[in-house]
Design goal:
With about 220 residues, the protein is mainly beta. It is about 0% helix and about 40% strand. The protein has one domain: Sandwich (Immunoglobulin-like), CATH 2.60.40. The radius of gyration is 16 Å and the shape is globular.
Amino acid sequence: MDHSNPYTSTNRIVSQFIPEDFGPDGDLNKPVWETAQWEEFDHAMAGAPSYPQAETRVAALWTAGYVYFGFRCRYTSLNIYQGEDPAKERWELWNRDVAEVFLNPQPERVSHYYEFEVAPNNQWIDLEIDKTKTPFNDAGWDSHFEHATRIDAGNHVWTCEMRVAVKSLGVEAVRAGDEWRLNFFRADGPGNDSERRFMSWSTIPEGKSFHVPERFGTIHFGR
């Protein structure tokens, strides 16, 4: 065991390089996503049980200046904040259905990372996280990340695209071969927290909070 490595997850996703940037529109059927490495998860964050009715597929792409994420989310019914302005950041968005990325471009700073959440109706929040501070989540930070969603009610699937400018993360540019740490999450379903589904790509055995950065998997920026 490598005692100098605080990370205990072996999950790994390859983000494919793309030659041109694009603006998110929520359409994951675009050719740009065809060569992406898609990962799937439907298990609760502790690893069990599984929720096939809320299966999530996720992929990543990159250019020097941006990292892109695509989510394809199955659902049975939508739990969203109704009648609100999606242009405004929504505090406590995590109390409804969301797709989430926790992203750490400086893996040596285990307790410091960035959180991006988007709901099916394109409401959003982004946060800078520093677990050495109280409170640890700073909603005053603004990445100006771009995002778009689509809801296919007939097939009970909602999709999301996110585009994050790496300079907002303190990174000058992404380079092939770089490796960061991250985890993907879904919160899904109606009711209170005891009834809702909380799922993660890289499992969190203690299963009590998404904020366990030692369980982040690896994102490898490939060609």
